[in-house]
Amino acid sequence: MKVLQLKNVEKYYGSRSSLTKAIDDISFEVSDGEFVGIMGASGSGKTTLLNCISTIDRVTSGHIIINDQDITKLKNNQLNRFRREELGFIFQDFNLLDTLTAYENIALALTIQKVNHLEIDSRVKKIAKKLNITNILKKYPYQMSGGEKQRVASARAIITNPKLVLADEPTGALDSKSARMLLENFEYLNQELKATILMVTHDAFTASYCKRILFIKDGKIFNELIRGDDTRKEFFNRIIEVVTLLGGELNDVV
């Protein structure tokens, strides 16, 4: 089943006299249960693309279909509801609410959806057990380690059983140990909990955890890599080869 479909998506910024084309006729699909990465140098259009998919920004033309709904046709209230019910978000800085415990942070989305409190309790405890955070449910963010915050943020992102989890540079602010923990957590969400994940990253190590990668250059899809039977290290080396082909400073992308 296709969870996400982009059809001839374009996004322009600016006025008629100085138009910038951030996304240039992009089409691709993401199937249920995939873990897909989007890579590209700074200014390539990858973040704009994610913003359009996440309903934060509107496309200029084309269609984005998530779970059989064309989100380009939804109005404000419909968009808010769609975002709440169909999408999960994992941010670079976690975006946990400091005044809420881990339990309350995870439960918040269900509370907004007016889910029965007994079901909320059951679902929070179930996801906490799976992500090994049962012992920190009563803690506030300032009492948690970086790794614990990541797992709480991941639990919050998938507690509503979203059709699609979107991650924007999720390892950007993390040290290498925390980044590895988060990526292993993503693998678990994808393989064991069957979450469909679309992740934007500029980092080849982070991207090597994906099953498939789309490379964006100048607002267009430049290349696509499928991991197949490769080890993560073999996939990493293939990613580096494409990054080199993309040109520009390697440090822009890796």
Name the descriptors.
disordered C terminus; Rossmann fold; 6-stranded mixed sheet; alpha/beta; 36% helix; globular; 4-stranded antiparallel sheet; 254 residues; 8 helices; single chain
Description:
It is a single chain. This protein is α/β, with parallel strands linked by helices. It has a single domain (2-252), classed as P-loop containing nucleotide triphosphate hydrolases (Rossmann fold). The protein has eight helices and ten strands. It has helices spanning 46-53, 76-86, 102-112, 117-130, 146-158, 176-191, 204-207, 232-246, and strands at 2-13, 20-31, 35-39, 61-66, 69-70, 87-90, 164-168, 197-200, 212-217, 220-226. It has a six-stranded mixed β-sheet, with helices on both faces. Strands 2-1-4-5 form a four-stranded antiparallel β-sheet, covered by helices on one side. β9 and β10 form a beta hairpin.
In short:
By secondary structure, the protein is an alpha/beta fold. It is built from eight helices and ten strands.
Uncertain segments of ≥5 residues (pLDDT<50)? 249-254
Order of helices and strands: EEEHEEHEHHHEHEHEEH
Number of helices: 8
Summarize the main sheet. 6 strands, mixed
Rg, Cα atoms, Å: 18 Å
What is the name of the CATH topology?
Rossmann fold
Termini separation comes to 32 Å
Classified by CATH, the class is Alpha Beta
Mean pLDDT: 91
CATH architecture classification name? 3-Layer(aba) Sandwich
**Overall helicity:** 25-40%
Shape: globular
Q: Which structural class best describes the helix and strand composition?
A: alpha/beta
